[in-house]
């Protein structure tokens, strides 16, 4: 969620809390008040929390502490702290002094639904120490801190959890958690840590998952087939790991909602499979540095009409760039650098003018730009080094009127099918 949205959300929660509070005036019980002071003091001992916030902490909550109101069986309204968010408001506050583990009792921890720390590099604590008593969490967001250790097995019992974001910490070890019980989890982001080993099969039981990001770790072995069960998945990033030698997983075709898929920087190898028919919603594909061989399937151009980003650079792809790539009208970056592609570049001058130097074709010595398109192409300098094709692909009007060869006629029809990009003066 964008910081602004989070801010709005937090503010609205606080506003609602205050309205309800004016009507009923329930007070935070003293044990919970004391527990909250201790959390705040352990997080930042340089602030005199008790002096600054002497009253009921839910009446005038410090930034980052959010309360909610509950009615119990006797309809009596009670108040509890439900959120400790040291992300937004405490953003980059703790770069100097070392921050210690916020210790909470199990009863206080159970009522906390959100725990957020963003960009606090001096929060150098083991993850197991942080999460132990927060068993009621819905959101755990620890991004850009010094959190270390592994993902503790007890996370398997966080049955209310909807988001686990642990990106850019110093976490490591193999991930052995059984995720099967986390039926509400929508976001799992372990990116930019030092995790290794196999990605657990049980990730395939996270049927509500929208985002899975394991990028920039040391995961290896086979990408679990069970991930094919993630029918709701919209974002999959497994790039920059050591997943090996089993090719691009064909199960991607079972993920009808998929919008972005990044597998770059693994050793997957093999050919790009024909899986694109069911994946028309995809807008981003990163398959670079993967040891891919064979051709680029024309079906990508035919089916991926919403594609904005395609990265296939630094592979061993050969053959031509499919003519159908001229259909990718929303593309804002296509990177095919450093392959063994050959033949004519199929893009029109209009397409080239739009995408500019985000069409990257260097390092394919067999590619050529058509002479007749050459002068009007504005590809930036990314095409600068490509040679001109020997024979013009597009019949000029004179050739065409005088009959031409059947080969030229065929290519003329293909160009027309591509949507009238070619203008005959
Ligand atoms: C969890 O609760 C127990 C029991 O109150 C306490 O001893 C321990 O320090 C707490 N752990 C953390 C990390 O808050
Ligand atoms: C994970 O937990 C589920 C349900 O709790 C259980 O059925 C399954 O056998 C467990 N899997 C592993 C690998 O332990
Ligand atoms: C979790 O996934 C595993 C492997 O895909 C499967 O065998 C198991 O039955 C699933 N468990 C539950 C509780 O859904
Ligand atoms: C292609 O290879 C060249 C030379 O090795 C390198 O400088 C360039 O960065 C590569 N392009 C990409 C997109 O990685």
UniProtKB/TrEMBL annotation:
<dbReference type="InterPro" id="IPR032675">
    <property type="entry name" value="LRR_dom_sf"/>
</dbReference>
<feature type="signal peptide">
    <location>
        <begin position="1"/>
        <end position="19"/>
    </location>
</feature>
<keyword id="KW-0433">Leucine-rich repeat</keyword>
<keyword id="KW-0677">Repeat</keyword>
<keyword id="KW-0732">Signal</keyword>
<dbReference type="Pfam" id="PF13855">
    <property type="entry name" value="LRR_8"/>
</dbReference>
<dbReference type="Pfam" id="PF00560">
    <property type="entry name" value="LRR_1"/>
</dbReference>
<dbReference type="InterPro" id="IPR001611">
    <property type="entry name" value="Leu-rich_rpt"/>
</dbReference>
<dbReference type="InterPro" id="IPR052592">
    <property type="entry name" value="LRR-RLK"/>
</dbReference>
<protein>
    <submittedName>
        <fullName>LRR_1 domain-containing protein/LRR_8 domain-containing protein</fullName>
    </submittedName>
</protein>
């Amino acid at each position: 969620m964008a910081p602004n949205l989070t801010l709005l959300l937090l503010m609205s929660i606080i506003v609602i809390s205050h309205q309800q509070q004016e009507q009923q005036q329930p007070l935070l019980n003293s044990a919970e008040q004391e527990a909250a002071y201790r959390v705040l003091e352990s997080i930042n001992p340089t602030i005199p929390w008790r002096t600054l916030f002497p009253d009921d902490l839910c009446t005038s909550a410090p930034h980052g502490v959010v309360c909610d109101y509950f009615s119990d069986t006797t309809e009596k309204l009670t108040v509890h702290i439900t959120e400790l968010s040291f992300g937004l408001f405490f953003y980059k506050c703790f770069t100097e002094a070392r921050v210690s583990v916020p210790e909470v009792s199990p009863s206080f921890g159970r009522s906390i639904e959100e725990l957020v720390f963003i960009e606090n590099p001096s929060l150098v604590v083991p993850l197991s120490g942080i999460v132990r008593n927060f068993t009621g969490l819905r959101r755990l967001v620890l991004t850009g801190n010094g959190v270390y250790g592994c993902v503790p097995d007890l996370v398997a019992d966080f049955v209310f959890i909807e988001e686990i974001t642990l990106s850019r910490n110093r976490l490591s070890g193999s991930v052995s958690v059984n995720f099967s019980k986390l039926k509400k989890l929508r976001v799992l982001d372990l990116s930019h840590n030092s995790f290794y080993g196999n990605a657990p099969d049980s990730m395939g039981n996270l049927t509500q998952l929208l985002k899975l990001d394991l990028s920039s770790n040391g995961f290896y072995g086979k990408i679990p087939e069970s991930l094919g069960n993630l029918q709701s998945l919209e974002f999959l990033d497994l790039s920059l790991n050591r997943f090996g030698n089993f090719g691009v997983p064909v199960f991607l075709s079972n993920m009808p909602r998929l919008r972005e898929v990044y597998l770059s920087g693994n050793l997957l190898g093999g050919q790009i499979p024909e899986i694109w028919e069911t994946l028309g919603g995809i807008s981003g594909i990163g398959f670079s540095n993967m040891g891919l061989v064979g051709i680029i399937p024309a079906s990508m151009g035919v089916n991926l009409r919403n594609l904005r980003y395609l990265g296939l650079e630094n592979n061993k792809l050969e053959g031509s760039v499919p003519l159908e790539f001229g259909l990718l009208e929303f593309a804002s970056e296509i990177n095919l650098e450093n392959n063994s592609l050959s033949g004519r570049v199929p893009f029109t001058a209009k397409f080239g003018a739009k995408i500019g130097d985000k069409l990257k074709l260097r390092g394919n010595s067999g590619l050529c730009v058509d002479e007749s398109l050459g002068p009007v192409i504005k590809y930036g300098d990314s095409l600068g080094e490509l040679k001109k094709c020997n024979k013009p692909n597009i019949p000029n009007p004179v050739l065409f009127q005088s009959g031409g060869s059947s080969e030229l006629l065929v290519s003329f029809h293909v160009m027309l099918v591509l949507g009238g990009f070619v203008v005959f003066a």
